[in-house]
Design brief:
Length: 148
Amino acid sequence: MTPGALKRLGIAFKACPATTCGCGCGGSKAPTPEPRPADLRQWLPSGDQGRVAQIAVREGVRRWDIKSEPSWRFFRPTKGKVGQYLADRAEIWIQTGLSAFDTASTALHELRHHRQHERHEPFDPIAEGEAEAYGQSLARVLQREGLL
Ligand SMILES: [Zn+2]
């Protein structure tokens, strides 16, 4: 779905992963992560969001054969995004105040970017569409299974 189509449906277009370090130094020192984007102000999850995000990430890691589990946090509402993946920190960020379904689909969208990063897949519009489709799809499955 294009950003324009998402906007017409009232869905905020998600910001996409920060670029990753490709320094190629070959050394053992881990690259220093970029500073977090200034608009990601960490905040408490509302209602049941923490439990829902935990289930969504756990099930996504298991069902999508993801090797490392990213951490996840919540941020205060900000313009233009409901979720973000920071590849260099392996962090998933989810907007506070979302419904259970939107919390799950956002967490899973960003988790899919984590999977793409793990597999060194390019980040492009196809990857964005893939993340959105897989995120929505697994969130619906988890809802049907009574896990959300
Ligand atoms: Zn995305």
